[in-house]
Design a protein that fits this description.
The complex is a heterodimer. By secondary structure, chain A is mainly alpha-helical. Chain A has 17 helices and no strands. The chains are: A mainly alpha, B alpha+beta. The interface between A and B is large, with 66 and 67 residues.
Chain lengths: 456, 170
């Protein structure tokens, strides 16, 4: 064996290394973890207090007022749904495309999906003002024989988001089962033995289980892929089905789907960089994985930028004065800072990734991912606020007064999301042990030369 | 697994266990293979029959499609919302409901299918299971009546098994 071959062999991951490394993340938490969890819970408490205050004193305490009746809450809703989407993209779409770089990052992305949908789902409840009547959204038999209007995009949204939450949670749990079984076999404390014993459902990894499991997994991926596209299309139709200038555009569904992937991949980078650093996962999540994610960002950033330009072109080409005015108002009107912030964060800043050394610079990527997340929040803000502030009739124009209640609830949502993520990384494997092993060359007594195991 | 006893071979290498499997197959004994991950070569060495989980997905999906459209149409008729001269039942706008329900029911049916075929949740003992099989070892478990266990032990050892155990069957 030549010296280069020896060096190559050392670099290769082994099953044992992956098991031990990933399970070491589940060891007893350090002080830092408790501080992080406490911070998140504190933010949740702030958010809850604001919400209760709003419930007691009414929706007037939020900045929502005519004509901007969809404010920060709906912006947050769309933002968090968007964050959720790239989790499914990474887990399902890249699975179908057999992209090898998916394996070490998809578990975290899926966890992010589930928790982001849980966060997003709160906002319509907060926004409707009387959350205890939220079940009115669902079709249920009642004494007044009332049924929801299934022609309304808002009812579509209820169906889309609840389906999305259910399917992504199922997909997430199905993926976790073999890894929980590994954790079960390795755990020593009684609490963990019981926890993993129950949640692994008695998985043993026998040949027949793997056969049906992988077949089922492929089907889940096949179902989740059209689902993720439909869900954000439906979210975009919440806007595009209305005749408001700036909303009523056929480009919205692809534009929203690309934007969702864009922000979600950025969020995955934001989350995985600290995790990789703290738990020393450099060999499992390599720079190449980041570079692959950067390429996704470059692609989706390009699509989003193209959509922005198309919106302006369509407004001009339509020769519709309301539409034209709306697209003058965005860059030069009351909310021009949001517009230029969005343009900088989503179109200009990601251009740096065309330079390869920056795609492989972890610190830069961390900062850029935060910039993109801010940009995508501003994008939703820009869509919602500017359009509602300048509808058809100048007598009905208006502006917005932010309230501290909205700020508190927004911050609380980040705490809520962070709380679930923090709990998750200490209780369940946040790197997919079984699937990372799948892309490793299996151990052989007589390794074949130039043999490449197909990524599954 | 049939038989009073199970013989368990713990293997470290994939090619060893594959050659052991092909030998066991010629003997027409019932066997089970445990692995830390899904390995295509192993799957091909065992059997190539396709899983029938997709049947669950198909049935679930079709049920969901019918349910989604049925719900929207029936609710529309039961509580008509007359707007101008627009249709009471408007199929294009119900496509979204039908589509989402197809996926929802399809996914739940797939979950049930996976649970059904994988025999999950399973609370009984798995004869021959070893915690190392979820870490880095491959396991071959063969059921027999006890008199053949010596012969199987020799076979496993000749194929390179690290450890051979004889345990009680289920």
């Amino acid at each position: 064996m030549s010296s280069t071959a020896v060096a190559k062999k050392e670099e290769e991951l082994t099953y044992k290394y992956v098991t031990d490394k990933v399970l070491s993340m589940l060891s007893a938490p350090t002080g830092g973890w408790y501080v992080l969890l406490a911070t998140c819970i504190a933010l949740v408490i702030i958010g809850k207090c604001c919400w209760f205050y709003q419930m007691i004193y009414g929706m007037g305490v939020a900045g929502i007022a005519h004509p901007i009746m969809w404010g920060v809450y709906i912006t947050n809703f769309v933002f968090w749904v968007g964050i959720a989407h790239s989790g499914t993209l990474i887990s399902a779409v890249l699975y179908l495309f057999r992209a090898k770089f998916r394996q070490p990052i998809y578990r975290l992305a899926e966890a992010m999906t589930v928790f982001a949908v849980m966060t997003a789902g709160l906002f319509p409840l907060i926004h409707v003002g009387r959350p205890w009547f939220a079940y009115w959204l669902m079709p249920y038999p009642n004494e007044r024989t009332l049924w929801p209007n299934f022609k309304s995009p808002l009812v579509w949204d209820v169906f889309a988001i609840s389906t999305y939450f259910t399917v992504s949670a199922v997909f997430f749990f199905i993926g976790l089962i073999p890894d929980i079984a590994t954790a079960r076999d390795k755990s020593k404390s009684l609490f963990r033995k019981v926890l993993y014993g129950i949640t692994s459902l008695g998985w043993s990894g026998s040949n027949s289980q793997f056969k049906h499991y992988t077949a089922g997994y492929l089907l889940f991926a096949g179902l989740a892929t059209p689902l993720v596209i439909s869900v954000h299309s439906v979210v975009s139709w919440d806007f595009a089905m209305g005749i408001v200038p700036g909303w009523h555009a056929t480009i919205f569904p692809p534009y929203f789907v690309a934007g969702a992937i864009f922000s979600g991949v950025a969020m995955v980078i934001t989350l995985i960089i600290p995790l990789r650093k703290v738990f020393g996962l450099e060999r499992i999540v390599t720079i190449d994985h980041f570079e692959a994610m950067c390429k996704l960002i470059m692609l989706t950033s390009g699509i989003v930028s193209y959509a922005y330009i198309t919106e302006f072109y369509t407004a001009w080409f339509s020769n519709n004065s309301y539409e034209r005015f709306q697209f003058w108002f965005r860059p030069f009107g009351d909310f021009k800072l949001a517009f230029w912030g969005m343009t900088f964060c989503n179109c200009i800043a990601p251009l740096a990734l065309w330079y390869r050394p920056l795609r492989r610079n972890i610190k830069f990527l961390f900062v850029l991912s935060l910039v993109i997340n801010v940009g995508m929040w501003l994008e939703r803000f820009n869509i919602i606020f500017t359009s509602l502030a300048r509808e058809f009739d100048p007598a009905a124009w208006g502006s917005y007064n932010f309230s501290w209640i909205e700020a508190g609830i927004t911050v609380g949502a980040f705490g809520w999301f962070g709380m679930w993520m923090t709990l998750f990384i200490k209780f369940f494997p946040s790197i997919a042990i079984m699937e990372v092993k799948e892309v490793i060359t299996p151990p052989k007594r007589h390794p074949e030369k130039h043999h490449q195991v197909e990524a599954h | 697994m049939k038989g009073k006893k199970v013989v368990v071979g713990v293997f470290s290498y994939l090619d060893d266990i594959i050659s052991a499997i092909s030998e066991i197959k010629t003997k027409e004994l019932e066997f089970k293979v445990y692995a830390p991950t899904f390995v295509h070569e192993l799957d091909e060495a065992i059997d190539t029959k396709r899983s029938k989980v997709s049947l669950f997905t198909l049935i679930g999906g079709l049920t969901g499609l019918t349910f989604g459209f049925g719900l929207a149409i029936w609710c529309g008729l039961d509580y008509p919302l007359r707007v101008s001269a627009k249709n009471i039942v408007s199929i294009p706008s119900y496509v979204v409901i039908g589509y989402e329900c197809t996926i929802l029911f399809g996914a739940i049916a797939t979950l049930l299918g996976v649970f059904h075929f994988c025999r999950l949740p399973w609370i009984f003992r798995q004869p021959g299971y070893d915690p190392r099989f979820s870490d880095d070892k491959f396991g071959l478990v063969v059921g027999c009546d006890g008199d053949k266990s010596g012969e199987l032990r020799e076979l496993f050892e000749s194929k390179g098994a690290e450890e051979v155990k004889v345990e009680d069957g289920l």
